[in-house]
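Subject: LysR family transcriptional regulator structure
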Amino acid sequence: MDRPELRPELPLPQLHAFTVLAEELHFGRAAARLGIAQPPLSQQIARLETKVGHPLFVREPGRVALSPAGRELLPAARRALADLSDGLAAARAVGDGRAGRLRIGFSASLALTVLPGLLRTFRERYPAVELDIREMTTAPQLAALHERGIDIGLLREPPAAEEEGALGFRTVLTEPFVAVLPSEHPLAAQRVVRVGELASEPFVLLPRAVGPLLYDRIAEVCGSAGFAPGIVQHAVEWQTVCALVGAGLGVSLAPASIRRIRLRGVAFRAVEPGTVRTRVAVAWRRGDPNPLVARLLEVVG
């Protein structure tokens, strides 16, 4: 026999009353368990039987038993109530920011600094949250935030014009720059390189389009030393920049965390002046209703 489908017109309170009575097989005990008087329980069951079109219980003096229709309905009623309970619990978890899905964009170099610790702490606090991690440079992250493609961005050099706009930013860390040199380069023999010593060197840099403000910050460092970098090659990722430097194509200036990239033939040296720093920030849409955004910002501190 095919099991009946529970139609929308079967109210869940009536199904709850039905399942409790089916378990107790006694109107008095079932009413007490439901916290209602016996007459309202009888009315709930009567309404449900009217909707089903058949008696759900066999009523005899001193005895209540499930009818054949009641036995058929009981498993479906329990499934419906369990599904509702599970759905309510899941909705509460998402609404409380304890579950759901959080989409995070991050600049590749941040995998060498703040990203692992941030994700580890967030995962420990909210293990039921699904994290969708996407490697993106700064400009695509900003576009994805505006277009609601991601919920959180971890990026370098957020644009100052956004500070009071649709996006919010919170600084996570600042770090100085280092010179990236072929290991056989004469300057690699020094512990500290003056930026001006790079004036005649060919440069390998990220294209300005993927991180305009970081590109401009590096140009500012060079400009303060009296030269504009002579760029001979662009690469979208810092690891590629370092690989090209190691291949002898040129030198570079990069955030200090890039030193954690271990490539044969590449040397990293502190630079003077070391006062100019690059800023790493977390970015989000102001007023985002996703509670997970607030949870991550709490972890950032």
